[in-house]
Amino acid sequence: MSSLIETYAPYTGFDVIQQLKELAEPLKGLRVVHVNSTKEGGGVAEILHRMIPLMNDLGIDTTWEVLEGNPDFYQCTKMFHNGMQGDQVQISDKLLEVYEETNRQNADRLRDTLRDADVVFIHDPQPAAFLKHIDDRKGKWIWRCHIDASKPNRQVWKYLREHVKNYDASVFSLAAFAQPLPHPIYLIPPSIDPLTEKNIELGEQEIKLVLEQFNIDPERHLLVQVSRFDRFKDPVGVIEAYRRARRFIPGLQLVLAGGGASDDPEGQIVLEEVRASAMGESDIHVLELPSDAHRTINALQRAATIIIQKSLKEGFGLTVTEGMWKEKPVIGGNTGGIRLQVVNHHTGFLVNSPGGAAMRIRYMLKNQGKLVEMGVKAKEFVRENFLITRHLREYMTLMLSLVHGSKHRIDLNKNK
Amino acid sequence: MNAKVKTDPAQSKGGNDPFMVRDCALIALATGKRARTMKELRDFLENIAPESIYYHFWGSLLRPRFEDPEYHNDFAAWCAHNLNDEISAERLAVVDPSQFESMEDLRSELIEIIDERIDELDVLPATSRDKQFEFISSDIVVFATNHVINEPSELKEVIPGLSRGSIFYHFIDGRRRNPESIDDFRSWLLKYDDSYQDTIMGIAEIDPYFTSLTELRENLSGVFSKPMQEAV
């Protein structure tokens, strides 16, 4: 019977799977814990849902713990998130006290697991303060930052830095996001999983039914942006770009689909702003989807003519990766990890304004051959670089590097 | 399916050690060093860790990039695309790292090229913060595989199933490890006296630049699939 990791071979090639098995050999038996703040919604949770079983399948004893907090805690950490992305935020002492107390309580609850683990991955700012509460820790602790921290609010970073500086290492998605810290800073972009409901192949009938459900015409061009209702994703800017393009392409349709995340208290406010901006136009579909609507999102992405991700700030932009995996060209904001994925004239276009996005929409719809060609290239680019198998390899390499003292060249054969 | 070739190493013709296929995985690290001008690039190059220079020459083979790169090292690409100085880009692009005995020699050559260009310019080119050169370093983890090659004739079976990491380790990284600055395949075949000269020539003709590891694997497979002269 095939192991879980072998089910990826049709997408990656057998050589990739064999390499992962060999790399995992020296890590077998290690106890690894991942900690984040939500099981549902957002790219981090999606990755962990797949990463944990894969690491276990390779013989690495891996568990996933979730921090629990109240609305004040999430309000505070949302402000951290916005502040790390450069927003001017003022966080009250009261909220910071809630943050620290929540971390203390959760660290106490998970003390035994965390203390005994060989490697602990702490994801994002929410559980960052765990470290100081586990003073008898045995293993290596890694702070994994998924946020675009290239120009953080200095006050927010100053506060968080005090919590993360004592980790053994940190991980950022891109070099541009990395902040100075007194430990090794690894660079690991995130990934998508080709076998999840959000990315598996779907039949035409299923896609058609989803379009019917939302009154979307399958015969007309469709732009799709999938992301949380968050101002940094610029959904209102997307509507403006759509309106400008529609002057030249009257049948154009737009979907703005957002899944909720339990750790994002601002989503509802932004959603109302987006609905007000759409003003009931029948060809603009603002869809609030539950966090588990993966097949629906998959169908919408597959039905799209062009994927839009016009973010003003973006950690990495996994919805871009998802769209590219479905052979769609992408018009993306010229920011963060979108730059790593969208290559002008090859996989789509980077834009800096609603006007720029509108111009590229018109260009692509006038050049259908180019549109198809870019989609094919986009899928191959993801296959080579952004599938979860690459992500898994880099996490294992990071663990080996840390366990062996972060030397530049680690030859495991010499240890035999 | 990967071919597994395991026989008694003592049976190797010519008494050579078997070729132990290894694999490697590279992980990138931020150095925190960022250059926005040609002068800053030069100044950081003076002291940056050798692993960073290595990464900016060869790391692109193991990280996301698109199709045929116009420039095969990051320094040249940055000068062209972000400083808009094609002259320095061209001079940096022709530097072949395998021709230098050490990373320090390579470092000196890069600094010399940039210094020469700085002397020629009245105004030093600069770029914006979001296009600055990010000096990146890397850790490389080398590990064993199940493949052991006893005879050169076995290479044609084994190579197509190797990972990109194995190709990197033996075909690219080997140039840094071997005294002759050549890849591991040639280094091994040379121990068979003159018996495999055609194959060695074929490998030497594979240009490691302007390509991907997948293509390099195909190129190597092509060379090893041709009839090989047996060792006597």
Individual helix count of chain B? 10
Distance N to C terminus of chain A:
30 Å
| Strand runs of chain B, count | 2
Number of helices of chain A: 16
CATH level-1 class of the largest domain in chain A = Alpha Beta
CATH topology of the largest domain in chain A: Rossmann fold
**What general form of chain B does the structure show?**
elongated
Protein topology:
The complex is a heterodimer of chains A (416) and B (232).
Chain A: H1 9-12, H2 14-24, E1 31-36, H3 43-57, E2 61-66, H4 71-84, H5 93-109, H6 111-116, E3 119-123, E4 140-145, H7 154-164, E5 169-172, E6 185-187, H8 204-213, E7 222-226, H9 235-246, E8 253-259, H10 267-278, E9 284-289, H11 294-303, E10 306-309, H12 318-325, E11 330-333, H13 338-341, E12 348-351, H14 354-366, H15 368-385, H16 388-403, E13 409-411
Parallel strand pairs in A: 1-2, 1-3, 3-4, 4-5, 5-6, 7-8, 7-10, 8-9, 10-11, 11-12
Helix pairs in contact in A: 2-16, 4-5, 8-11, 9-14
Chain B: E1 19-35, H1 38-47, H2 50-58, H3 74-81, H4 86-93, H5 103-120, E2 133-149, H6 155-158, H7 164-177, H8 184-189, H9 197-204, H10 213-225
Antiparallel strand pairs in B: 1-2
Notes on the protein architecture:
The complex is a heterodimer of chains A (416) and B (232). Chain A has 416 residues and is α/β, with parallel strands linked by helices. Chain A folds into two domains: 5-191 and 387-415, Rossmann fold (3-Layer(aba) Sandwich), CATH 3.40.50.2000; 204-385, Glycogen Phosphorylase B (Rossmann fold), CATH 3.40.50.2000. Helix content of chain A is 44%, strand content 15%. Chain A contains 16 helices and 13 strands. In chain A, α2 packs parallel to α16 (388-403) and α9 (235-246) crosses α14 (354-366). Chain A is globular and about 65 Å long. The two termini of chain A are 30 Å apart. The mean pLDDT of chain A is 93. Chain B has two domains: 25-137, no CATH class; 152-225, no CATH class. Chain B is built from ten helices and two strands. Chain B has a two-stranded antiparallel ribbon. The longest helix of chain B is centred in the middle third of the chain and has 18 residues, at 103-120. The two termini of chain B are 32 Å apart. Residues 1-14 of chain B have low confidence and may be disordered. The chains are: A alpha/beta (416), B alpha+beta (232). The A-B interface holds A 14-16, 18-19, 22-23, 25-26, 150, 172, 175-176, 178, 180, 184-189, 340-341, 343, 346-347, 377, 381, 384-386, 393-394, 396-398, 400-401, 404, 406-413, 416 and B 1-2, 20, 22-23, 25-30, 32, 49, 51, 63-64, 66-67, 130, 134, 136-146, 161-166, 212, 214. β13 (409-411) of chain A pairs parallel with β2 of chain B.
